[in-house]
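Quick one, tokens below. Sequence please?
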């Protein structure tokens, strides 16, 4: 292939991949909207997991209020 033919092939290939990427993104968006408005759908970012909340509160309860004194 000549240089111009290779550039044309790469340009067309990039365009095709960009179009496929956009179609995939739109498809995933539509699927996500259907799941979030349905009866079983939920937003995973709306609240942190319960284990993370319990862990954070237990670390605060076990943390020392002042640094330990170093004895020489």
């Amino acid at each position: 292939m000549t240089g111009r033919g290779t550039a044309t092939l790469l340009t067309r290939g990039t365009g095709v991949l960009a179009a496929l990427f956009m179609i995939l993104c739109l498809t995933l968006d539509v699927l996500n909207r259907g799941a979030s408005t349905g009866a079983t759908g939920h937003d995973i970012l709306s609240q942190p997991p319960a284990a993370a909340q319990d862990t954070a509160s237990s670390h605060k309860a076990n943390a020392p209020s002042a640094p330990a004194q170093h004895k020489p």
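The CA atoms of residues 7 and 66 lie 66 Å apart. Helices lie at 3-37, 50-62.
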